[in-house]
Structure formats: structure tokens, C-alpha cells
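Incident log, entry 3
Record: Pentatricopeptide repeat-containing protein 2, mitochondrial-like Protein (394 residues)
Problem: checksum mismatch between cached and fresh output.
Input:
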Amino acid sequence: MSQTLRCALRSLCTPLKRDVLKLAPPLSSVLNTRFLYAKATLGLDGFAEQSKQIHQQMENIAGKFREKMTTYSSEDSQNMIFTEDLKNMVYMAESDADVELVVKMTKKFNSQNKELRFGNFVFGPVIMRMFYTHNKADLALECFKAPEFDGIFDQLITYQILLDLLYENGKYQEILDTFEVIKGRQLEGTKYPRNSVVLVMAACYKMNSKESVEYALKFWNELRGAGHFPMRRATTFCAGLALNQGMPEAALEIISNVRNPNYVTIRNIKARALSEIGRLDDVITILKSVISDDRPGEVAHTFNRDVLEAIKAKVLEADNPEISAEFNRLEKLFEKEGHITNETLDQHLCSEIQKPPVMNNRQGNRFNRFQQSDRRPSPGFKRPSYRPGLKDLI
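Fresh output:
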């Protein structure tokens, strides 16, 4: 174990016996292939709809328009690329040649005298959605880093779209490298954009290696040291990775930061981690809690079947008749009352995030943070905080 990892674990974990850090089997050997952020969350549905409208409007002149833009975007052309030109071409892009044309137009547009731009259209998220639609992960990353595009892609939602595109293409190391660039830019005074942090932890979880857990634990301590409270999904990715890498103590310390311990992923990780360190009495208590929390008409609290199987293996190893009898009783009760899901913990951790984030670009923002009220609040009323990311995503 490296010195970095030892330091990270020392700051995360309470003093427990080191001999309990036995290598745990992976949560699942099958990688989940569903999207992490749903298309609507990234604005891709809206992009597709707008693209359809632009295609209809430009149908009769599309060919001539492309020819004109190809001429205008050449280096020796004195013609300018206007906001409306670039916007139309982004939405019209159908082929690789069209995407390359958009890249050339964007370079020229960004190099033109900024004093001549009077519109407030923000291109970063829209162009990144175009890259996403055409699955151009490498080109998107290249443009993001290129100095010719300085300022174009500096929006928090653009960071999220780019990192999600890299995630869907399995470019996990590139996510970590790109996040270092994002941290350095500190857009809007934000060094750790919440949705980007989720994707960084997701990348570490997918990598599932000694190096990735070292990075994740070091990054976790960096976040906590800066007073940053990660979203619940980032927390469960980090804890799930620690559990996969045989560090149940670290997993328990990480999930202790979640304010509400009743979420299904938290409950499963905690029960599995406690079983790994031999605290089966505490596991039984957690199992019993889902029964006491049952409410008529509400969805039953569940455990993942693979988690219960892992716990059962630990119960058999312990050879404690009392614990075994109680576990068997609860397992039968869970089967009868629908407290077991066949979805694996890995699948649950990697399920789609549906809730729309707060869009950080001014154009195309259909998700209002809150409704302004003309009424003056009553004395003593405290307006809730609507800062992005305060409410965790499941």
C-alpha cells in the first residue's frame, strides 16, 4: 500500500484492526452500460428538437449555406462569421464534414473582434451537445483544451456534458485529467463543480483499481478539506469503490457524511461494509430497520440481492447460531414482503441521474432555479437556499 493511500485512510478511518481489511469481491463483475446523466438532464432532447426546427427552416438553402460557410471559414477569407451563421450550422450538422466545418467556424468566430459581438448567445453548451450527439469525444476534448477556443467552453454545464461524453466512451483517465484543467479555471469561483465531481468519482469507480482508489480517497480528503460537500451520488461512488478495493472501513467513513442514511445505496453499502469487518449485530439491526420503517401504501425499502448474498456468506463464516437464525428469518420475510431487488448494487450506483441540474448558461435555460415572488416574506421566514447541488441526486 502506498504512502499516499495510507495517509488517506488514516484521515478517513477510525482506529479499527487492520486485519479486517480483507480484499472484498467486486460489487458486480458486469459494467453498467446505461447513461449516467439522462439526455434531458444534459439538454440533449432540447438540442434535438431545435435541430429539427432549424433543418426545416433551412431545408431549401442548406447546400448553398454550407458552401458559403466553408468559404467564409477559410483562413484567407475576409468575411465574418456571425452569431446566427454559427448557431444555424451547429444545429444543421449531420455528417463528420459538418462537424469539422463547425469547428472551423468556431475558431474564426472566436478570433474575430469581440467588440463586434452584441448578442448574448452562449455557444459552449450547444457545441458540446453537438459533439455529444455525434459521439465525438476525442474532438470535443481537443477543442476544449485548444487555446483557439479560449472562453467558448467555460460554462459549468459544458463541463458536465463533456465529462459525461467521456464517461460514455469509457475514457475514465481523460475525465480525471480534464478535471484538473477545470479546477484550474475556477469558473464562477467554483473549483469543484458538483456534477463534475460526480463524474470524476464515477470514473474512479469504473476504473476500479488501486490507482483509482488512491486518487478517489485523496480527492475526497481534498474536497472535505475545502469545505465541499459532495452530492450523494459522488459519495456512493467513492464508498462503493473503497468497498470493491477491500477497504470497508473507508467506505463506512465516507458514507457517514451523508445526512440521510435511509437511501437505498447508503443502506446497502453500510450493511455490506459492516459485514466485511465482522460487525454482524449491526448488520442485523440495519436489516430490521427496513421492516420497522414500512408504511402502508409506500414503496418497500429494499436490499440488493447480491448484497444479501455477500452478507449471508459472512454470516456462515461466523458460525454464530443466533445470528444465523435471525438472518435466515429476515431473509425469508424480505422475500415474502418484497424487500429484495434483483438489481445489483453496481447497477443501482450507476443508474441514470434524471433530475435536471441548474443550467449555467443564459441561453436555452428552461430550468428555473426558483420562482420569484412579489409577496414579502413574513417575519422570521428564511428563504431556502437554491445554490446548485445542495440537494443530492440519488
